[in-house]
Amino acid sequence: MKSQSKTEKAADPSAVQKLRATHRHMHDSYCEVILPFRSSREFLEQYTNASGGIRTGKIMEVLDSTAGSVAYKHLLGPEAETVGTIQEQGFYVVTASVDR
After folding, report:
1. Residue 76 burial (CB < 10 Å; 0-12/13-18/19+)?
2. What's the CA gap between 79 and 14, in Å, rounded?
3. Which of 10, 24, 41, 50 is most buried by a 10 A CB count?
4. For the chain, counts of helices (H) and of strands (E)
5. How much is the average pLDDT of 10-22?
């Protein structure tokens, strides 16, 4: 019998069910990101375009990353310290864009 590699193993169904059965509140997944534009000139330069305006794409990148972090935190609970692999957790988190 051929053994499965770690990436081919299916997620533990009981672990997935436990995630679904756990009730969460909004404050359990609270996340805050502080962008230090005023206090860090170097940081501000990363978010400024050639004409001196804010790079909105860079801001959207931070928002998308934060949305993913909040989603994982909501699924795993406030006590989780790491996300782990998809195979270990048994779920994907996907962020999406809506233009209109």
Report:
1. buried
2. 19
3. 24
4. 4, 0
5. 56
